[in-house]
User: Fold these one by one.
Assistant:
Number 1:
Amino acid sequence: MKRVAVFIDLANISSAFQNMAREMNLSRQMRLDIIKMTKLITIGSEIIEKNVYIGMVNGPAQNSFKKRLEYDGFKVITKEPKTIQTSRGPVIKNNLDCEITFDIASRIWRNGCDEIILCSGDSDFAFLPEKIRESGKDFTVVSSRNSISRELFNEPGRRIFIEDLPIDEITFLQTQDEEVSFLNKLTGRD
């Protein structure tokens, strides 16, 4: 059985899903369920590590979201969002690329896995696939066709596009109240 390690950039994969959902005219309340998605993309494999990286304000209101993921065996790595002033106004950044890269490198050094699965189409990770293959491991990227960077798309290895996965097996419908509550929790307004 193949041993896999999964690294999920939640902001990137959620954004890719939301863009795909708009293109497919899916309900605005449709949300990607990363727990279900992870189970589906790792069928037939032994998961030895699964990390999710989330830019969010830490506090009591966020604990239920983190606990749900931790209950399912995820290691949850959080970082408070940073507000950057631009000429177009403030932009909120949730950048955990350094943490993801470090954890992937650590997994390679510790060995014990056959495949690294990266759930992000971000071009900032373009150098990783070659280094992963050099270590004797397989590389898989999970993204959407319209959100994967050209650099990651052109890399050898397995590509899983979320639009090819059964939508009903990787999503849930979020009510308006849940959405407002969730967004408030992520931004620290709750």
Number 2:
Amino acid sequence: MAPIDRHECEWVREHLDAFLDGADSDLAAGDSERVARHLASCAECRAESAFAQRVRAGLRGMEMTAAPAAVIERAEREIGSTRGRVVALRPRGGMRRWAPAIAAAAVLVVVATWSERSRRAQAERVAVEQAAREAAVAFAYLNKYAQRTGDIVEADVIGRRFVAPVEKAMEKTGVAETKPSPDES
């Protein structure tokens, strides 16, 4: 399995919306093929693409609500009474029509990004704790064998340089002291 190219992932995620727009996008054909190739080989970006497609489908499925009849009637009355003073506006369209959907999508992206960062930070903390536990076990065994072979490694050097810091790390991470099993003695 080839290593993940984070720069390529970043580029693909920047162009993912245009890719998902398909024929309506400004994405060049070569870039579209590049995104498709990357999605075929990268599970993380495929998951991001699937998430973006679900968000788009959810936004498209949102119901448009009509204004109550009383509000429409009042607006028509006010418009009729001020017809001479009203300045015609250009027809509404473009980005204004999509502003609520874009805002909702932006909120979803922010929440998803925050959630992913929190998950990654937790995973990093767990990895550090696991590494500290593994190091503590390794140093405990080193101390055990150093005490048996005092002529080779001076025990107090091991104690000061390795065992004491490891014991502190073990206390912080909640790892109990490692005891040799009966067949290791």
Number 3:
Amino acid sequence: MDLKCNGTKFTALFGDIAELDVDVLTVASSPDLLMSGGIALKIKIKGGQEIEDEAVGKDRGVPGEVIITGAGSLLAKKIYHCVLLNDEKIADPENLTKCVRYTLSSCHEEGYSKIAFPALGSAFKGLSPKLSTEIIVSECKKASEEGMNFEEFVFVVCDQTPYRYYKKALKALL
């Protein structure tokens, strides 16, 4: 599914985020920044251990913060590790909003124009696929309306539930 808003393409895609040819991949993270499960593990397996090594070599993440690393052998240029979980392993929608806003602002400043978002944090307690996708699409739409000049946002998932919610959010907001 492809839609446009202010010259930016919004694409909902069922597939493997680690295979995308985009500037930036985003991934949900816990404060320890280990890439030991879910989409993070897929990215580490395909892109190389050096992605996790670089992430954990930085200071421990704080919920709502984004840690930026290289993308190893992936086609992407950077990985934005969105720290969503607190020490009790609960994600807060406010921290997701902060991470998405920071990601968009940083990508705009760095000249990155193609950004991929899975349904960040949708499997974590405190978030759901519906809430996660609505927050991400809403923040991307705001960035587009503010003239941040992105070429494309790719909303990529490997599960039917968040894919349906991304499509609903796109239809509702664009």
